[in-house]
Amino acid sequence: MSDEDEPELCDDCQEPLTDALARTIRLTVDRSQIDSQRLCPECFADWIDRYENEMQPTHESENSGSEIIVD
Questions:
Q1: For residue 67, is pLDDT > 80?
Q2: pLDDT tens-digit profile of 17-57?
Q3: Phi then psi dihedrals of residue 40, to 5 deg
Q4: Diameter of the chain measured on Cα atoms
Q5: Do the beta carbons of residue 68 and residue 51 sit within 8 Å?
Q6: Strands (E), the chain
Q7: CA dist 55 → 6, 12, 16 (Å)
Q8: Is the Cβ–Cβ distance between 9 and 3 less than 8 Å?
Q9: SS3 category, 43
Q10: Is residue 12 classed as helix, strand or coil in its secondary structure?
Q11: Distances (CA, A) of 49 to 9, 20, 43, 56
Q12: What is the spatial distance between Cα 11 and Cα 63, in angstroms, rounded to a whole number?
């Protein structure tokens, strides 16, 4: 079996990915890519939950104008 025949694995749980359902998360700072992860739907949902919890401001007034954009 060649490398081309092996399925791509989720960067989190290491399960095989289905391209139609996989999501790629790219972290960029000042237009430089810092990290990229390819995740299955379940790991992606977990990532979004963690991101929302960790990035939520302590005061509601700090949240004005902030948003999460997922492509």
A1: no
A2: 987 889 999 989 888 999 999 999 999 999 999 989 988 77
A3: -75, 165
A4: 56
A5: yes
A6: 23-29, 32-39
A7: 36, 20, 29
A8: no
A9: helix
A10: coil
A11: 21, 21, 10, 11
A12: 30
For 25, phi then psi, to 5°, come to: -105, 125
Return the domain boundaries, the chain: 3-54
Residue 3 has pLDDT above 70, yes or no: no
Measured CA distances, 54 to 3, 25, 45, 68 (Å) = 37, 16, 14, 12
Task: Measure the N-to-C terminal CA separation of the chain; round to a whole number of Å.
Answer: 33
Confidence (pLDDT) at 5: 75
Which structure tokens are listed for 13? 């749980």
